[in-house]
Amino acid sequence: MDMHTVVVGTSGTTAEDVVAVARHGARVELSAAAVEALAAARLIVDALAAKPEPVYGVSTGFGALASRHISHELRAQLQRNIVRSHAAGMGPRVEREVVRALMFLRLKTVASGHTGVRPEVAQTMADLLNAGITPVVHEYGSLGCSGDLAPLSHCALTLMGEGEAEGPDGTVRPAGELLAAHGITPVELAEKEGLALLNGTDGMLGMLVMALADLKNLYTSADITAALCLEALLGTDKVLAPELHAIRPHPGQGVSADNMLRVLAGSGLTGRHADVTGDAPRVQDAYSVRCAPQVNGAGRDTLDHAAVVAGRELASSVDNPVVLPDGRVESNGNFHGAPVAYVLDFLAIVAADLGSICERRTDRLLDKNRSHGLPPFLADDAGVDSGLMIAQYTQAALVSEMKRLAVPASADSIPSSAMQEDHVSMGWSAARKLRTAVDNLTRIVAVELYAATRAVELRAAEGLVPAPASQAAVAALRAAGAEGPGPDRFLAPDLAAADTFVREGRLVAAVEPVTGPLA
């Protein structure tokens, strides 16, 4: 297979596979082992379906209606009905990459051979992804328990040729038309298949995996911006010495300190406050500067924990009931989203705190009473020019929203399905607010970068020589369209350019030729 094809097997998948399919349109192919496992599990379901005894999800109703035994002639209708009735989402459309992650992860579980879905249904799921057909999924409809029910139902509806979907050209059309245009035959669901397509943590897991990828870039970017601020404030890099971090051996802390130290290597600005500014001797820098490795590092350790949870979930087969290797079909509670929901909320907390410390450093750069000789608001002619005064307002507004988004969704639960489903995870909600938080954090880091690079350039104009890595960051940001010091101008385009620069990982890419690979 070429590098653009992801093979779905029987033993889970990787975070890199999820990102490749969701964001980059990688093709999907079922392995021979997956097809074999699908067929074997289907034989077990068919045998149970032929028996007179009721089996949940095969020959019964669902949820609080599980007590009703469904006759053979109504079972196809039962499977269609669960999809149609559960496709009850409301609100704005969910992003294309989220829906593709949702579809791919459901296919991953189906291909495990524990769901009883026929091979041809799994193949149709892969065909949809490969055709670039993306079901219309709505913001609201999942409680994060019994799976992401409404979002997955909208995906299953498209498999049936019903509802609406977005084609590869971005146009929303009736799903049946899109399937026909791509030569895909809608599926006719058999026993258990409707339920198996709906019952998983795939939406919240997909959003977790993508958030982890984004946050990895942002934490490295924030190490760089923290180093730039330390340099612009004429701080000391002695606090980054590895022996200081070795005696408090949190792994992320040491990584962040090392990143900052490498960015600052060769700087002519660090430790120069006394002889450059005429300040009273400064024994220590402010917490937002001195404690950057501790805060950034604690967030990094949280990312590592969340990645462990995501890896376990990626290796899981989440359905109810499940087909076991010995032929049993057993009910279970593995669809409960608590493990994923908790780390989604945890990440929103650390993202909010990272945003907060970035904003505090930005504010310090702009305040002439605390910036050790920089002009007020980094303005060209303070009073006539306002400089970056309102950029900090924007950053502060984003930080304030980040704090609201840090309130955990997983601490809530609301009963559903006539009290049968009386405790739920709210994991989908945790994932949705984390996406907003990551988006906001990117903007916050971008504002810090914009302010820090301007401050470093102002120091350079005084005859001080920034670190080679700092010079590389400044040059790359300016080349990306975010201008340097000067009289006031329309600021929003500069901030947008800085946002794109950080979001696309270009800040990290700009300094690594100087620093070597940063963690």
Automatic annotation (TrEMBL):
Annotated CDD domains: PAL-HAL
PTM notes: Contains an active site 4-methylidene-imidazol-5-one (MIO), which is formed autocatalytically by cyclization and dehydration of residues Cys-Ser-Gly.
Record localization: Cytoplasm
Modification sites for 2,3-didehydroalanine (Ser): S146
Covalent link (5-imidazolinone (Ala-Gly)) residue numbers: C145-G147
Lyase among keywords: yes
Keyword Lyase: yes
Entry similarity comment: Belongs to the PAL/histidase family.
Protein name per the record: Histidine ammonia-lyase
Source species taxonomy: Bacteria, Bacillati, Actinomycetota, Actinomycetes, Kitasatosporales
